[in-house]
Amino acid sequence: MLLNAKPLLPAAALAVAFLCSAAFAQPAASSHIVTSQKLDWSAAAALASEAVRICAAQGYSVTATIVDTSGHEQAVIKDDTVPLQSLSVAYRKAYTAYSYGLAFNKNTTSELIAAGVTGPANGALNTIPEVLFVPGGVTLRRTSDHAILGGLGVSGAPGGDKDEACALHAVEKLRNTFQ
């Protein structure tokens, strides 16, 4: 029986090679594969760490969260004594900065608030659990073409303006990693 199987192995290998080469020969548009750009895990962790470090140097214990282009948490760094709610608030600020920064071409949650981007008059968007129009979120953009890569949210300082200042300073310091 093994003798009969040997001739099939080269034929099977040839069939697999043909199918693989055919798959690579097709144009990307017909491949049904979607790719997205985002920070890699090490850049996301470094950015969140830097935001926490900047706030800590000012005496603020904060949580910093990076969301990627799917809106999911990619990195979360928290100081040792952050309030419990800072975990969810940092995520929501990052999510809002990313999703609404993308939709309305704004760079921070403060810019969104200043532009009156808080949703329809009936407040329907404010009922989405992930959305939080509070200062402290920054839209992450690639340096070369300003493509959106995610969002950074900081929470825990005594005021969203302080959270946002730490986030912005961290982004400016590490911007060269967003190429």
Automatic annotation (TrEMBL):
Pfam families per UniProt: HbpS-like
Signal peptide feature range: 1-25
InterPro entries: GlcG_carb_metab_protein, PduO/GlcC-like, PduO/GlcC-like_sf
The keyword Signal is annotated on this UniProt entry: yes
Keywords: Signal
Keyword Signal applies: yes
Name assigned to this protein: Heme-binding protein
UniProt organism field: Gluconobacter oxydans
